[in-house]
Amino acid sequence: MGHKVAVFDISVIRALWETRVKKHKAWQKKEAERLEKSALEKIKEEWNFVAECRRKGIPQAAYCKNGFIDTSVRLLEKIERNTLARQSSLFKERDKRSSPFVFELSGEQWTELPDSLKEQTHLKEWHISNTLIQIIPTYIELFQAMRILDLPKNQISHLPAEIGRLKNLKELNVSFNHLRSIPPELGDCENLEKLDCSGNLELTELPFELSNLKQVTFVDISANKFASVPICVLRMCNLQWLDISNNSLSDLPQDIDRLEELQTFLLYKNKLSYLPYALLNLKKLTLLVVSGDHLVELPTALCDSSTPLKFVSLMDNPLDNTPCQDGVEVMESERDRQCFDKEFLKAYIEDVKERESVPSYTTKVSFSVQL
């Protein structure tokens, strides 16, 4: 008996496979359309985008607005460029700090400046912070090349009169120390551009001699005990930034409009009951921040959205300190609290500056942590 051979028409087999291929392609197309409409694909895209941003160290606030994630490639490129620019700036600042013309000192182990410092009169910058140093020595007058005196968060209680001999000084930061007065000789530093005396808590006035500082563009005297805007400040004709928040002001001078170059005016945490109409004469003013709890009268034009001025009224909401259940209460120092509050408001103000408009109202809640 011979072999049996099955004979098929090849065209039948070909037609069968072509039909199956067509059905598979139709299914793939339908599945692609379904995925395109599906929220899962969007979620996957956003997840991959967020993972990429995290990998590159990009903060969430940069790509998440009001709960929505912007997966735009342009945004990612823009954020990367900004991040690189910031990193480059930090590297430049670090290199600058490592310069032989810059002196740095930090740490509570320091109670006085090293003796060798008086021999380094070529220095142009001092950056001294978070030490227990109380006195700036009189030999500071030898540093005639000094440009920047950055002395925040120390225990300094007195500035020597010799500081007035630093004719090239451009920046003085003595914030969060223990100063009760500023030497009138500082008025001789005619090239000074930035003055920060914030957070000393006990300053009540600035000497009239500071009226000579015609190059000053930035003054911060917040977190002190000023009862009025110092007369010398009103005579700083190039002043652009004035922070006198968290003091004891009950009113503003009627000649506040003498500050024709003023752009940013911070007044929050005072007890102002009204704002003078003279503020409307400050044509370059773009940001005004006050505490609204005591305000009963203000020029309506300040709230006019058609003007470039951003008017922010903070409604303070202090919380009373309540003891813990076990009766143990940890009180943070006044300076630490003021410093934290200042950093928080600084971040908020920077955010407000970037907005096209300000919120219709803002409630600022203060809180403390109890252990």
Automatic annotation (TrEMBL):
SUPFAM superfamilies: RNI-like
Segment forming the signal sequence: none
A cellular component annotation (GO) from this entry: cytoplasm
One Pfam family from the record: LRR_4
Gene3D superfamilies: Ribonuclease Inhibitor (3.80.10.10)
Top-rank taxon, per record: Eukaryota
The entry's keywords: Leucine-rich repeat, Repeat
Repeat is among the record's keywords: yes
Name used for this protein in its record: Leucine-rich repeat-containing protein 2
Organism name: Zalophus californianus
Primary gene name: LRRC2
